[in-house]
Amino acid sequence: MTGTNPAKQGKGYGVLMRRHLTVADAASVPCYLETSKETNIPTYQSFGLEVTDEIRLPGGATLYAMCREAHAD
Questions:
Q1: Most CB atoms within 10 A, among 21, 27, 49, 58?
Q2: Is 5 helix (H, G, I), strand (E, B) or coil?
Q3: Cα(28)–Cα(21) distance, rounded to whole angstroms?
Q4: Partners of 35 in the beta sheet?
Q5: Which contacts (CB < 8 Å, 24+ apart) does range 45-52 have?
């Protein structure tokens, strides 16, 4: 699980996402993540992830499930 402190968001920590995707590509495995912030979706889409489901939690929160197919390295 990876998260970013809100005070650090937008500061270039996407390098962690690229690292995780590089490892996944080397193993030819798909990637999955969930975000509770709809505003994060375009950022994750820029890494090749797509929304596959919306999970509505009791109390009103929504999680957006996102997947990226396996890529051959």
A1: 49
A2: coil
A3: 10
A4: 64
A5: 47/14, 47/17, 47/18, 47/21, 48/21
Name the burial class of residue 47, with classes exposed (0-12), middle (13-18) and buried (19+) by CB atoms within 10 angstroms of its CB: middle
Q: Are 45 and 64 in contact (CB under 8 A)?
A: no
Please give the C-alpha separations between residue 5 and each of 23, 34, 45, 52, in angstroms, as whole numbers: 23, 16, 20, 25
Q: What is the pLDDT along the chain (73 residues), one digit of tens a residue?
A: 566 667 766 766 678 888 889 999 999 999 999 999 999 899 999 999 999 999 999 998 999 999 999 987 5
pTM for the complete prediction? 0.80
State how far the Cα of 45 lies from the Cα of 68, in Å rounded to an integer.
9
